[in-house]
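Sample 1 of the test manifest.
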Amino acid sequence: MSRLFTKDTQAIFWNNNRSAIQRMLDYDYTIERKLPSIAAIVAPTSTAKFDKFFFGNAEIMIPLYRSTAEAAEAFPGADVLLNFGSFRTAYDVVMEAIELDGQFKTIMVTAEGIPERRARTMNQAARDKGVTVIGPATVGAIAPGAFKIANIGGTMENIINSKLNRCGSCGLVTRSGGLFNEMSNIISLNADGIAEGVAIGGDRFVGSVFIDNLLRMESNPDVKYMILLGEVGGTEEYKVIEAVKSGKIKKPIIAWCIGTIAKHFESGVQFGHAGASANADRETAEAKNIAMSEAGFFVPDSFNDIPATIHKVYEDLLAKGVIKEIKEPNVREISNTRKARNFICTISDDRGEEATYCGIPISKVATPDTGYTLGDVMSILWFKKRYPRWAVDFIETVLKTVADHGPAVSGAHNAKVTARAGKDVVSSLIAGLLTIGPRFGGAIDNAAKYFKYGFDNNLSPKEFLKYMKKQGIPIPGIGHRIKSVRNPDLRISSLKKFVSENFPSSPILQYALEVEKETTSKKDNLILNVDGTIGVLMVDMWRELGYSDVEIDTFIEAGALNAFFILGRCIGFIGHILDEKRLNMPMYRHPWDDILYDVEQLEY
Amino acid sequence: MAQRAIREYDGKALFSKHWEKYFSGFQYGFKSVLVSSGDELRKKANEHGFEWLKQETLVAKPDMLFGKRGKNGLVLFKDKKPGDVSLEVAASWIDEQISHPTTLLSGQHGTLTHFIIEPFTPHSEEQEYYISATTVGEDDVLYMSTEGGMEVEDGWEEKVTEVVIPINMQDANIDHLVRANAPVDLPADKKEAFISFAIDFFRFYRDLNFAYLEINPLVMLEQNEMAILDLVARLDDTAGYLMLEDWGKIEYPTAFGMEDQSTEEKAISDADAKSGASLKLTILNPMGRIWTMVAGGGASVVYADTIADLSGNVSELANYGEYSGGPTTDETKFYADTIFDLMTRFKDPKGRDKILIIGGAIANFTDVAKTFTGIIQSLEEYAQKFKKIGVKIYVRRGGPNYKKGLKDIKEAADRLGLYMEVYGPQTHVTDIVRMSLAKEEK
């Protein structure tokens, strides 16, 4: 890995830190990245599925997940984890992320004050797996023109001023995040900006140290020279000296260790970071500056002379032709009047010449010659895909199958009573629809949910019955008032026939039928009923269409299965309502003799 | 902070609290008390469980983080002959010690306030051992020696065995490693016990999040009884939230001889503790001429460096400190008030103007104009005093909203009649130090 990040790098952001994420997206837009640099956000306590952010002046949705593992599964290409967990959680987040083998190449940890033993454990675990840890206690890193972590670089104005919007020729490594910005600014004023920059973090134990980053920069062809801003305390700078002496690093290095002041004070005054206190003479800033100077680094006389040193090294490399002049790229501007939208629509659009369903004009789906049927339109508007013929046929079969079940069922009855009270179609329809729920029509959802669970967990039919008994509810989708093995429900028979002829496969239906064998051996009418059949077939259909389990569960949770019943049964309800209107029957009053009166007699 | 020293007494108390869990094969009496005066010791001796203070002869020494107490003549173990110190002798010795200031061989100077008192443990030199553990680089290192006592530092290389233990090493491998690398000169009858104690010791050090732990000497008595004669311990205080139960309430004393914080420093550190932002102040020389009010940890260091380098005289630097992490306007004003108050107390003895550096790097997300509002409010209050004492102000800052911040502060200075030069990110961060000193030379 010669470059830390490229223009295609995508990250998973742990913790929904909205302002930091927005700054990354603003950067992305400014440098004309095609993909946002954040693929997904891990928000463990959020119930939302996504959050909205600006990408330029438009808004985009970034998906939220409850765990790193889920986000990683959804975005296998996102190889950077930006861990914004607190000092209490950051360690667990890193350890979990490292275990997701091969997912993350780089993990950045922002928390300050992680217990040292934990920091060492996670740093070592990362090294063992070849994962680069940036931090803890850092603002991050940047590959100008490609990818920027969170708040590094500060405001967009500063980023442009410091030429952090495009690749320069300096590789910059600092401990401090505050001085990182300052150094970027100095480098832009005195040279041509940076190619890659990392603030390694201020804690005593950080993951990647100076040498790790400088060795990578040595192999990065964009980097022509390097700047190391070290600090009093620790011996990491000596590893860099060794690498220069042994020839592993050949590019020029400008170096300075801050904290030379500490030599004037015996003890007690803590200058700067937790990592910044010298335990031995060779850890003082002065000793390190001398050692680096002796090893041939460009070391200024004081921090105040750094700009002049940078300018000299840069001019020299420019004169030698190592560095070429850079043509400043276009900077895309972001309007400062952009406004967040309150509503989101992802299925249809009425703004153009003609309203569209997922981009298809209505006229292209409406008439028979278009080849689109009602099921096609449903699949587009409900699931944002045009389903293959067999699935569309199935949807339509379901609608036709559930369209009506006579006047006596509670919904139809309610609709009829309401119509007879003189109410209009919509009121009567709603009265009927309001009965649809757990006892009427609602079995489809739960049948799908439980049979899917049994099948996916390899429960034998007997085990499944035991499991359902433990849940304390009758098995949804099993049982019929009248129909039985000997008196089969012909609707189901024809559904099964259709499936066997058209579905590529139907494993959950087959599983449910195995369960049915078990239940009907106990009682003849405990058959897989029409609700159960539709429920399991829907799952079979979605699996066949390539949806992930997470997506299918989302459909079920959202009530999409029940929606087929609702839509289908509307046809029947409206039929009953129109029937009542035609018959013009009087207002219905239930007969007294059909009610058992057993009224409490209170004193008054 | 990260690694913080604790008292010998507290370190031993931790051993005692966890002894059964880590050192079940050994005995430890934990006969120690910590007192601040002779009377406190006398009172302690009447408490249940501390009868030994009257029954046994004692050793008394200060427990204030510094070492080499023997060489400093601060270990009381004999009245007329070694091992004859009674309760009363110890109590009066303590009273004598606290009655006057003490200067150590290291030059540290202060008044003794805390003493640890323990029974005198008769033993031979052969029973003394050395053991310690700390972190070196990325690894833990266990140090062992068959030679205990204060002489161990002479000839460290020959006498001490080091075992480097990587952070991710499993317990079984640690046992094996320590066993294989134990000092070769362990006497046969103590060998097994010492190795087993060393392994326990390392686990205790590791699990309890010590950053440094040393027993010198460790005395191995009969029947596996251990005497911890001297102990030095530092904890990794960032692990405090994990160790609430295991550490209990623990005190981190300031080093002996460190001047106690001034009222102003204390006020800032209290404000720091209450705030989500960071406010730090150390007064280096109250008579100093150059005062700094710098935003950001890294920037505060480079300003201090540059002032020391360019002024050629570090005593010119009056204070060190920083404010960062987005302090509120009120917090910034309070911080500025404190510095401006200190700065205007004394005139420069040579009659020169004082230099006030309001500096900072380019902020990542702190709103510069907002923090400057607090500084401006403070300048308004202190303008008269500034003029009386003579102050030249140099400002340099960048970051969100910096243009407005710089404009506002310059307007305020002009309005108040204060000398001020103002610079933004185009000027090198510490160059105002050079400018302020160059001005002086002319």
